[in-house]
Amino acid sequence: MAQMTFTADQKKAIETHGQNILVAAAAGSGKTRVLVERIISQVRSGTLSLDRVLVLTFTKAAASEMRERIEAALNEEIAALAAGGVSASDLHQRIGALERQRVLLTGADISTFHSFCQRLIQSHIDATDIPPNFRIASEQEISLLKNKVVEDLLEQEYQRAENGDADGFLAFSDAYGGLRGDDEQLQGDILALHAFSLSQPSPETWLRAQGQESTDTPYWARSGFSMLADELKQGLSQLCADYAEAEVLLCAGDANLRAAAAKCIDVLAGNREIYEALRSSLDHFLHAEDEGAWETFLTEASAAKKQRKSIPRKAVEDCDAAVGARLKKLTEKIHGAWDGSIGQLPATADELCETENRANASIRQYARLTTAFHKAFQKEKLQRGILDFGDLEHTALALLCTQPALLQENPTTAMPTEIAEELRRHYDAIMVDEYQDTNGLQEGILSQIARDANRFIVGDVKQSIYRFRLADPALFQATYRKYRTNGADGTLVTMSENFRSRAEVLEPINEIFSQIMSEESVEIAYDDTARLNSGRQFDDLPQERSLAEPLEIDLLRADYSTSEDEETEEERKAFEVEAHFIARRIDELKSEGYVLQNGEPLRNRDIVILLRGAKGRAGLLLDALRARNIPAYADDTAGYFEASEIRMILSLLAVLDNARQDTPLAAVLTSPMIGLTMAKMVELRVRTPNGGIYDMLTGAAGDEVAENALERIRRWRRHALTHSVPELLWALYRETGYYDYVGTLPGGTLRQANLRMLIDRAADFERTNERGLFRFLRYIDALKRRSTDLSVARTLGESEDVVRIMTIHRSKGLEFPVVFLANIAGTFNTQDTRGDLLYHAHAGIGLRVSENTTAGRQKYDTMARRKVKNIIQRESIAEEMRILYVAMTRAQEKLILTGTLSITRTGRDALEQLREFCLKYAQTQETQFPTSVILSAKSYLDWIALALMRHPDGTPLFDDEDEIAHRQPTHPQARFHVRILDESVRAAQTEAQEATDDILSAVRADEPLPGGGEADRVAAVLDWKYDLRGTAHIHAKTSVTELKRQQAVEEEVIAPFLPAVGNAESMQSEWEMPRFLRAAEREHLTPMERGTAMHTVMQQLDLDHAENIAAIAAQADELLTKGILTEAERRSIDVTKIWKFASSSLGRRMRTAKAIYRELPFGRLLPAQRYYEEATDTSDRIFLQGIIDVLFEDEHGDYILLDYKTDRRISAVAARKRYQFQIDLYCDAVETILHKAVKERYLFLLDTGIEVKM
């Protein structure tokens, strides 16, 4: 066996014993190899047995690889011993010992955290409340169950509030529920907060601690005040610095300029002195700890604003246009940030404290509801005998720790139970891979089972990119700081040699990150120990073209400001331009004869394209690559239910469950499974003009084709009654031949994998407490309705020669010869900081104060929320930098960065904005840029351009800029090849069109062949395009409800501290569930189902026999008996609300009406332009349909229009505002169709018994 060689750092990690060890392993440093060798070396020496080691990883693949590597190392050891070199007396004993270890390896604890916890629970199931036959539920099953439990919880809260709302729940739900009067927003907040809390060692302890700030806490002691103070100090300092810079600009000019600018200079100096004087007032305010200091400072800030003078720039601009332009840019909005900071402050400290107190009260409500949900959810899971991954870890911690609640303060505290003590004695070594991805809960588990000196943990905080999975890199950082002194706590080993990549890849990475990654900005110091040092020898390839070239940066200029006369050319989106460039560049790399280090020519499978987010971009890349005949593959993260083959099979299952569903039945009949043509369908419809499509089939007696189709459907339905869903699916695939059919289509392998996955999903479903086709379809319907899509099947083999497209997160742990990092100019996603409710493990919960008033929804920001937001922003920026590091370190031989810098139609140039951003710091002398500039970056390119600015190779990006303080590269191989390329935003013609062979050119371009007298006419027909006239996204047929929703989007303006009128957020619509799909046994209904049930009773209500509540209840019971209402619907009917209507003036008028029209349907053709701004043709129409609740003719012959509303706790003003548009449409329809005016229009609010005249 060849002797393995290790670096000094690797040897230290392998050979150090008797203490805890943290290995800070850089990308490509061989950490897995070190882990395996550390285990094997101790097994070889007899100091460690594989049944007494615990190895924890974060993926099953990593655990499997670890096990395989250990087995391979054991096999090599045994083979080496057997080959000789050991005395015969010792040989048998040593080989036997290793063979015993090979046997023990099969049961060794090498697994993921979750698998370890699951085994622990199974071993001590008697110490828990969990049933022994528990199973791990799927993500989709858990998601649906969560939604059910949270709906039930809120329903119970509403019912409890009706008997006395001591907790103030109704006001809370009104303020934080959905803008449509439902609870969708509140439900989402509770579920998100619950999911976040599960990352804590004790979720209930963490939740209980939120919103507990005392109501009499003064403003200077409030959470977030210190951050507000820092913002004010920084804002005022920046204002004074901007004034000083403007003065310097003008004073540095020649005599003529100084003379022309004299007045302007005086104003600048005067204004600066005013704000310099305000700085002392601000300092006194921030340290006074006096209630009156707040108003005093605001008064002085207001006085300063009044004293300052407008800046006279015209004389400067007339004298020197260039200086005038710089002055304008510097001073035009010089007060904006400061005035904004002051303007957001309340007038008094009392107002501020009142806002914070209200927010804390709402936070306590959120915590209470989330805790109640947690308990109800746990109870429901136990009843069903299921667990989720969060349960595994929390149950394991409960088994191991005597007081988990105390771990909330410090997760490293050890309070082991007897079970934990047993494990402590058992495990001689505990090894953790990817330690930077752990959270407080997992650290708590480790602390209970680890001894004082048997932990070996490996990770790289620079590669911690799973914050969205609630990883806490601060744990790694704390351990790193504790161990780097090499004291009693443990030893730090740093492995910085990279055995993956060329120096031409590594050194540019070092050059960039040494300037932007600092402990002050992102809590990581990119010092000498963090640098990537090349540890792999790459041989020269003198006869071949090597990939050993500078790091390539291609910035594409996409100019959208110029108009094109050629309307037939299609305009590409910015990333589409980039996608086509990447495809062209891959073509160039392959055609130019590049060779890998192993001597093999560059192939498609050697190339990967990495994206920060694949949604909407992976498809564009696939299209661009296919256009150049480059095979490619992208992992889809969703879209399973939209796959055509899945939609077709689900349609067939729907038909087998209920054949009287026209849409799915029509799809099945015309599919390859049955094969009716549209002409045949028309023929059958002519023969049976009435009824549904199923009636059309049954009425086609004597038609062999129709009878055959009907017989097949009936046979399949009988099969469905006696077989499980998986068995039914296999039978349908075989008999219809549909499985084989989709295999012949483009992407057939993937389509067949999707169909097999559907069988797997059905089998998973039937392992739950549910059975049968009806329930399976309802389960799928709920998944789709809740937007819980599934990933499409993955069918790519490792050896397939395709270009891979994947997200940066998916690429972690992988390596590729050539890496394209695309869209580096794309802005960071800041969605995490936009919500009203923000939360952080250590900073707690921050919340906007929200309430509904007659003026609409008002929101107030709070200091606590701004504090949490600021922390999340900093952590998000830090993670984006780590994600960039991970992406760039995937490359072995060549790294190419691409980004698109657009010029908008208004002329805004992204390249100029980038240069302007960087040049502010052109004179920076320090190695690292200031923290403020690092945190203000909006894209990866901002950071990369900053590093390039001072590098000689950055000249193409910053040409002729004398003011840049250049610095020498940190290494001779830290080289860049920067290109700024002008790319057309128009779809380019294919290269094949330039070929001399016209016929071959046409075939390659997939165009009509040349020649023939009819060529022009055929081309004209085939090239003809519909004029969509702006109606591409407008439904030709719509409802009043949908049109109202389209028109009712309000604009929400959020003031940081002061009230602001909010606007309606875009909410997903909840489609009504058909009656035959509703489960009669369901205890609670959705808000929409409750509203439908109430409308059904109102439609059927006989007012002549509604003389009291008992009479109305009898009518409702009769509807239940007739099957018009389900039992759950009947229970949801509050007859006292109906009595409020029956006894109202409107009810009495209806009782004496000449005529009553209930549930009155109508349909109208209306101009599309009236309701959709994008519609361009006045002749386009939309078909509007609706149903009017009640139209009655009173004793005078006048029409009275009435609409019932079931909204909870809605005021008359809000109802009038919300439904005015709908009532106007109804009245317009009545008056147009019946040619008679509507005299009066009303809403009746059934929840409160209020009638609202419109």
Write out the strand line-up for the largest beta sheet, numbering strands in chain order. Answer: 15-16-14-17-22-12-23
Major sheet description: 7 strands, parallel
Name the overall outline: globular
Mean pLDDT across all residues, rounded? 86
Low-confidence sequence ranges: 989-996, 1049-1072, 1075-1082
**Rg calculated over all Cα atoms:** 35 Å
| CA-CA gap between termini | 91 Å
Keywords:
alpha/beta; single chain; seven-stranded parallel sheet
In short:
The chain is α/β, with parallel strands linked by helices. The chain has 48 helices and 29 strands.
Overview of this protein structure:
- It is a single chain.
- With 1254 residues, the protein is an alpha/beta fold.
- The chain has 48 helices and 29 strands.
- A seven-stranded parallel β-sheet has the order 15-16-14-17-22-12-23. The chain has a six-stranded parallel β-sheet with strand order 3-2-6-7-1-8, with helices on both faces. Strands 24, 25, 26, 27, 28 and 29 form a six-stranded mixed β-sheet that branches.
- α12 (262-287) packs antiparallel against α13, α24 (574-591) packs across α25 and α31 packs antiparallel against α33 (748-766).
- It starts with 7 loop residues before the first helix and ends with a strand.
